Structures are given as structure tokens and as C-alpha cells.
Amino acid sequence: MKRLFFFIVLLSLSLNNPSKADSIQDFEIKGISLGQSLFDHFVKEDVLYYDAYGTKWLNPRFKSVTLNLKKNGKKTFSRSPKFDEIESIYDAIQITWKIDNAGNGDFNNFKVQGLSGILYYETVNNNCANDAKEVIEVFNSLLLNTNYTFDDVPEKPFNKLDNTGKSTNKLSRYNLMSGEGIMIGCTYIRNNELIKKGEKSFLRVSLQSKEVRDFLSPAGNLKDFLIEGITTNKSLLDYFSLENIQYKQFNAGTKNYLYSKFTKNTNNLEIYDELRVHYKENDSNYKIKGVQGWLYFWDKKDECLLKQKEISKEIFEDFANRDIQKLTKKVIDKTDKSKESFEIYTVIRFPKGGLIAVSCSIWSKKMKPINTLTVSIYTGDYK
User: Fold this and answer.
1) Could you give the CA distance from residue 52 to residue 229 in angstroms, rounded to a whole number?
2) I need a surface site. Which of 45, 46, 179, 210 has the fewest CB within 10 A?
3) Which residues pair with 348 in a beta bridge?
4) What is the pTM of this model?
5) Claim to verify: residue 252 and residue 280 sit in the same structural domain
């Protein structure tokens, strides 16, 4: 009951009427709510430090910082009295904000888009499950006047942290009609090697804005996968003008298909150096049948291979519970007699057609072409 009391204090701190919540922004974790500015809680020096050293997400749309609050002398150094004076039962909190194309936060705002409280456990036992149950009971009572759906996800291996499959993760999620979300999760570390390295089981209570929720929502099928915000079976005219589409237009490797090329400098691409969008020849609607994002790594072979591995793993995890086929293969380039040039790729195929491919092309110094990473999506009828 003592722990439940603290959770109630934590979650209803800002409510005039603690029996209900009108919005997810009514909830606080260590005095912070979604939608507020980091400047409301931290001095300027701390905000700039967190923005400089925070962790970029794989798709660099957001940045997060994790602040240790107590235990083992790891308390985060802070120059912000307003933040320090508020107590919390959590061992750490994680704060997420949006960043621009250059990877920097909005200096005029630093609006909080995501917020998590993290509580660690010394051993793998039922404490996390019991605490999560109590947190859910609190949210159920506070969300009585809020429209939402609730998902209780079965416990499954947490491969993102432990590729042996020994460690597991159990999630419960509130999907608010506003598009925002609340997540309560227990991660159980059962890999002795990770435990020796100091990894601990933990409870995470997260508040997520609509933007973060949309980004984190697992893709259900091919049409949910985007490259530079573009997906298949839509008109390319929804994204670019006819003049831009026809400006750099080439024959594709597939008969009766063309592709248009767009570059980072001229088309303000957020992630990739180059974008290629495929469609049928003579299709006045330019219905998209394939999208490719290209990243140039020049002579940085290891960086290309690492990024290929990271993206492949993340995509596969997004579709892990779907009926898909996955293939990873390395192919030696036959035109290079040294056999030092090769392509390594991962392909995910969908039963109803279509695929996602992530490839890294590595070239020997003798061949000289640029090392490139390519992320591609194709519809099932792209022949």
C-alpha cells in the first residue's frame, strides 16, 4: 500500500480533482508534464547540455536524455534547483523532445514529447508485476472520463536488450482517442552475463505525445512503412510537383517502369542523401510501386555495415509478430576479381506480396565506387 500511495501522489499531483483526468497532460513525473518546456524545469545550461549529449533515435526525429535520480552515487548532476527539489520514487526518468534536421532541439521551446519514470529491482521477482498492477489500477480510476482502448500485451522475449531471448518484457498500453498513449512495462533481465554487467530488471511508466506514439506504433503491414514520409500505392503527386517528378526521371531495371530521383540538397530530405521513387511508365497518376532511400558512406565500410545491421534489426522487431519471411544474405560481386566487393542485405517478405530490403554495398579500393546503404520497399505487383 505504501508503494501504491506514492504512485497516486505521483500521478495525481497536478489534478484539481484527483478522481479524474481530462488529458494526459494532467499527469506528472517528477513535476514534469507532456507539452511543457524543458525551460520550465531546468536552467538554460542544463537544457543545452542535455540537447548536446542526449541520445538521437534511429530515425533522428527525436532526442532523449535519461537522468539518474538516486542510488549508487549515480545521481545526475544538475544546476536546476526547481527540478532537484521535487522528490520521486523512481531511480531515473527519461525525457524526450523533438529535434530539427540538424539534430538540434527548438531553442525557443524544447517541448516535452515523451516522459518515463524508471524503477529498478535488485532481483527478478514479482515486485515489478505487482507494482505495474497497482499503477494500472490508479490509471483506470483517473481515466474514467477519458476515451481510450487498453492493450495487455503477453510477455515475450526482449531481443532489443538481450539477443539470447532469455530476458523478457511485459507491456500494458492505454491508447487514448486523442492519439496520446500511456505505457506500463516490466522488463525482466534473466541473462546472467547482463546481470554481471550491472543490468537490472525494471518498471517503466511512460507518457507519450501523439507524435511519439505515431512514431513508436508498430507497423502492421507494408503500407505502414515509410521512407522520408512516403509509402507505396499512393500518388507521387501527393509529395512532389509534376515538374520535380519529371526533372530527374530514369528507366528502372524493371521493364515498363521509371523512377524519379530526389536529392537531399535540392529536395530537403530529412534522413537520406538520395530518394528514388518507382512507378509504371505512362501512369499519369504516378502511383508509387517502390521507394528507395540511399545513404552514402564513401570509404566508411564499417559504419555502413553497422547501420545496415541496426536498421534490419529494428525493422524486423517492428514486424516480429506478423506473418513474414526474413532472409539475410551476403553476395560477392563477380566483377571484382579480388572478391573484396560484396553486398549484404536483409529482405522481409509479406505473405500478401511486397517486401522491405536493407542492403549495404561494399566496394574494394580497386573498384572505387562509393559504399552505400539502401533501404527499399516494393509492392507485390512490382514485376
Assistant:
1) 26
2) 45
3) 326, 356
4) 0.59
5) yes
